[in-house]
Amino acid sequence: MKYLLALFLSFISFLALSEDEGFRSEKSKQLVKELKYSVNHTIAKILEYEKEAGAGDKSVHFNIEQTSATEKTLGLLVSKNREVILVSPSSPAERLGIKAGDTIRALSFNEQALDLASENWLKKDGLLIAEIVRDGTYLTLKETIKLSDTPIWRLEFFANTENYEQLDSSVESMQYDDNACGKVSVFFTPPSTKDLYKSYFTKINDKVITNRYKEIYKLKPGKHIIEIHELFVFKGLTSLQRKNYNSPSKSIELLIEPNKIYSLAAKFEKSHRHKKRPEEHWEPIVWKVSETSCEL
Fold this sequence. Notes:
The chain is mainly β. The protein has three domains: 2-68, no CATH class; 72-145, Pdz3 Domain, CATH 2.30.42; 163-291, no CATH class. It contains three helices and 22 strands. The chain has helices at 26-52, 92-96, 239-242; strands at residues 2-4, 60-67, 72-73, 76-78, 84-87, 103-109, 112-113, 121-122, 126-134, 137-145, 152-159, 165-167, 172-173, 182-185, 196-197, 199-204, 207-208, 216-219, 222-230, 250-256, 260-268, 282-291. It is globular and about 65 Å long.
């Protein structure tokens, strides 16, 4: 199960509320403290609701990434009955004056109606208008939104131990406890600013992976051959190279250690963008290794 918000952190337990964060501004320190409290509180609630639903104990993973995008999300979470659940701080929705508990009757940006069921991204400056109901009173809110150079962050997370698939075979096993394991993952979105892109598994050791949507596998400690396929549109290729583009899968050998999760990605090699063979344009890499709990 994935919980997608509009932000991107690898994480298994709750954030520690440490005092020394390296920030100079007292306002920054206060915002960091508030953010940690909010994240901890929200994750605790998610796990509480999951446990009530019979999901049992789960570990929480999430990743944060600063993107290179120039657009900004509206910063609004709305229920099916159009009631505002959450307004992100410093977002266009907050500047407009929308508050949690409001009911949105209509929402438009530059005279174009916005779909409340979708994640709306604003790509240029413009006039944001909302018709809302607040405490029984009908209100019309208007605000000219100017997109600043504030970095855009993306947060993806999942809380699951049940959808992992265990693969027993390894190219070369190591002497660890029988229940020891590590994980390989293509779940987290790598930073495209570093020419890293999403991929999916096609083969692990001798096992052909037929379900491209399974993104995490448990593996016994030792050497494993992991094969992935890239999931990106190459930048800088000629129109001839773009036509009928079909890049084959490529493999990487990993030494899996216990209680670690290895996040894989496809790295686009800019210097190879003019080569004719598709497989010469990218390489599979491990872009992040994080601590995790793992037991077979």
